[in-house]
Amino acid sequence: MAIAAETQPEDQHKAPQEGAGEEKKRWTLNDFDIGKPLGRGKFGHVYLAREKRSNHIVALKVLFKTQLKQSQVEHQLRREVEIQSHLRHSNILRLYGYFYDQKRVYLILEYAAKGELYKELQKCKYFSERRAATYVASLARALIYCHGKHVIHRDIKPENLLVGAQGELKIADFGWSVHTFNRRRTMCGTLDYLPPEMVESVEHDANVDIWSLGVLCYEFLYGVPPFEAKEHSDTYRRIVQVDLKFPPKPIVSSAAKDLISQMLVKDGSQRLPLIKVLEHPWIIQNADPSGVFKG
Ligand code: AMP
């Protein structure tokens, strides 16, 4: 799969600011007490940490510069930091700031106490309609917010979703997101969640996120993504042909299938707009109005 470079934001040398007029703060490792490891990613480790002055609990992501360089993802990381630090939404993981030393880059992230959604889905195999609808509605709201700021996420999938202390979903990974006013051509993300226009590398816009939300909704309800196949080439073909099938088990309501079918439409401009997703009868009947699945 070809991954093309895109335009980069300006390099940032200072930590993103909490608010206008505040004194610029340069963080260092000394500002934090480091706690237990929370997980391990491709480029480093994530630790629970406490900011000493405020006692604020955060997740500190430690990335090794050599590994970032080797994989040529420094620009992608800069873009991720630039975008995520400017987003403020209860269903988007906050990025409070960053700092670095000679060997490492540190990201100061909101702590998502209930961990990865992916693990939860593996444990349950699939979610109830109420749970799935609550998650889909909260993600639709978060994506409406992103699109309003001209940010397309482009990589919505269970692995990129964390769960906060109250059970609220948090979009966590903005590695493939892009700040754009234009239509784009770049191929990125994992094949299973990519819309036809991205696997075919034709121009795409914010409607790609509607497709991915449709794929996610399907996976929440069935436990597997809709176009899964043994070979990449078969997944590719199934996506391009929108080869959408609903298995008989688990039993899923026709209202849920209707919503998925309206999101997984080949022509991006014909997909159900996110605002209409929130008004869909399946969402209205099933999603918890608080936006939090209470179990
Ligand atoms: P990543 O490098 O982002 O893939 O993170 C590696 C793992 O660390 C994840 O799979 C999570 O289990 C955990 N993790 C990352 N960020 C957070 C966070 N903000 N809050 C809680 N756990 C996290």
UniProtKB/TrEMBL annotation:
Q: Per the record, which residues fall in region Disordered?
A: 1-23
Give the GO cellular component terms, alphabetically.
nuclear membrane; spindle pole
EC nos: 2.7.11.1
Q: Where is this cross-link: Glycyl lysine isopeptide (Lys-Gly) (interchain with G-Cter in SUMO2)?
A: 157
Please provide, alphabetically and separated by semicolons, the GO molecular function terms listed in this UniProt record. Answer: ATP binding; histone H3S10 kinase activity
Q: Cross-referenced Gene3D superfamilies, in alphabetical order?
A: Phosphorylase Kinase, domain 1 (3.30.200.20), Transferase(Phosphotransferase) domain 1 (1.10.510.10)
InterPro entries the record matches: Aur-like (IPR030616), Kinase-like_dom_sf (IPR011009), Prot_kinase_dom (IPR000719), Protein_kinase_ATP_BS (IPR017441), Ser/Thr_kinase_AS (IPR008271)
- Active site annotation, chain numbering: 155 (proton acceptor)
The listed locations are: Cytoplasm, Cytoskeleton, Spindle pole; Nucleus membrane
What does the entry list as the binding residues for ATP?
A: 42, 61, 110-112, 159-160, 173
Key word Cytoplasm present:
yes
Q: Name one Pfam family in it.
A: Pkinase
Give all residue intervals belonging to the Protein kinase domain.
32-283
What does the record give as the reaction this protein catalyses?
A: L-seryl-[protein] + ATP = O-phospho-L-seryl-[protein] + ADP + H(+); L-threonyl-[protein] + ATP = O-phospho-L-threonyl-[protein] + ADP + H(+)
Q: Where is the composition biased (Basic and acidic residues)?
A: 10-23
Which protein family is it in? Belongs to the protein kinase superfamily. Ser/Thr protein kinase family. Aurora subfamily.
Q: What is this protein called?
A: Aurora kinase
